[in-house]
Amino acid sequence: MRNEKLESLTEFDTGLPNNIDSKTFEEYYQVFGTSIITSQKLKLAEHCLNRKVFPLANLILKEFIDNHGPLSEAIFLLAKLRRKMKRNTEALTLFKQLESNPEYKLQGLWGQSMIHQKSNNTDETNRLYNSIISGAANLPIVKESKRFLQEKNDIKLIKAEESHIELNITQVKRVHLHIGAHKSASTTIQRNLLTNRDKVKDEFKIGYIGGGDLYRRGVGKHFVKLAQGYFSDGKDEEYISSIEAAKCSIKELFTSIKEADVVISWEGILGHSALDQYRGIYTHSKRISESLKSIFSDFETEITIVVRRQDDFIESCYLQQIKENLSLIHI
Question: Is residue 288 domain-resident?
Answer without folding.
Answer: yes
